[in-house]
């Protein structure tokens, strides 16, 4: 109770518009943004999406708790021991070896509990999901070659013959159609600058670098239309570099693939070699 | 607390280090085996032009003195920067007469600066339509040395500033040509610069070229009787206008014979329900490319899909391709009917997968026009 009495006059600070206004603005805007689903990460639509969701919330909660604790521990002495008549500032503890050790131990325990916990889970996720690129020889794996450019995504799928660099390769710009419940594997490169393929609902993001082929994969578990974004500032129109990811159930997908493949062979010009850009699949 | 020793802390740090190192064995980490700097082998054994520093050097050698190097601009403008962080930029010293219109050096300089920043990655620094991002791209980006434009909706040889502005503002759907939301001043400066790229005595530097506005949208005679417009449009599409020679026919052989009043037993082109690849005048690296007439139930149309857009596109034709100018060849009434018919195809079947496959499947199983 005596502690509250000490603290009480300090709340007058909050009434000052210099502190109160920004604080109120911060709280209301955070609350308002949290109300709108578009600002959140959304529901995951790939089979490893939950891992990222779990890790995201683990980090958010751990960091929030740690932040709140630190702020409280900081604010209390600042308010309690603030400048007032009849008190002189002096160090009365914190210089002994015991205190130094105590500080070191608290820091290390915090570090191990917070960071190592997150690190272990993150490494496990990377190994079991992100880096566990599916076998390209497995016929279940749907392979897509991605050629990024300023400011569009070029996609190439094998078409019905299952081989890249043939007349029936399905070429699309800013639109990718993939089958449900099958691993989709990417080989990606860029014509010009660094881009990054970002499928937010699939929890997939990977840089696309010129001169190198990067790999990535995901397995969609929900049908529907999703977002394709570029997540690396790649020039003026970076914000317009987006596309549509369509996940179709296997039967519908087969029908789509057959038709797209057929139309692609109609559009194929064998003499126009400059337009043929497939590469040998890299694993 | 006093009992804990410095050795204990050292052990804790060591354990942490071990924990992290456990995860980075190269054997079970496919990420570590990802190829670095591989040459991308193209099907025909040619090599993909991996972006490198030579690219600009070659271009600069071809036209010495055209480019100067200013690295500060690269940082300041943050526009198109190559691998070495270089930015090629030049002050225009002389103005140009482009189609009886004086473009001041200041205007051309401003236009060039914005052109380099926003347009050159595809359209090329010299406007030859072969910038670094244009590699392998079909349809090819416009070459401003060729002075032909597909979707300006203009009948004259060349589009007016307003017609070009409209194209740049709208963008071309389904291609990397974006809807550009720059200011009018910036876009008009860019347009003046583009016009100044015409080779001598041709395009905008040929005083005999005709420059025109987008075709006028006349009054739609079918505005309250859309169903009749669609029926009429279907007849014109497969009859008088013979659109099915390049675009897909959306009827069976038998229906086509009835519409065209052909004798029994007439045969039509193979794969009637698919489009046919056509020659075009658009060149890349000195070689003409082909273009695919769209299947309206499948492909995205470039220049808008409202009835008015479709009317304008059909009426003006598409320059440099097999799509002719229909204004004058057919009465306006039929052009509007065609626009309504095409719009109906798009609305009913494009992106409506079950409906489309039922419709096209029905055509394909009912005759010999597969």
Describe this structure in words.
The complex is a heterodimer of chains A (283) and B (370). Chain A is an alpha+beta fold and 283 residues long. Chain A contains six helices and ten strands; from the N terminus they run H-H-H-H-H-E-E-E-E-E-E-E-E-E-E-H. In chain A, the strands form two sheets. Chain A has a five-stranded mixed sheet with strand order 3-2-1-5-8. A five-stranded mixed sheet of chain A has the order 4-10-9-6-7. In chain A, helix 4 packs antiparallel against helix 5 (97-130). The longest helix of chain A has 34 residues, at 97-130. Chain A is elongated and about 90 Å long. The termini of chain A are far apart. Chain B has two domains: 91-212, Cytochrome c-like domain (Cytochrome Bc1 Complex, Chain D, domain 2); 226-365, no CATH class. In chain B, 37% of the residues lie in helices and 7% in strands. Chain B is globular. The interface between A and B is large, with 63 and 66 residues.
- Within CATH, the superfamily of the largest domain in chain A carries the name Cupredoxins -  blue copper proteins
Low-confidence stretches of chain B: 23-57, 64-89
Biggest interface, chains and residues, is: A-B, 63 and 66 residues
Radius of gyration of chain A: 27 Å
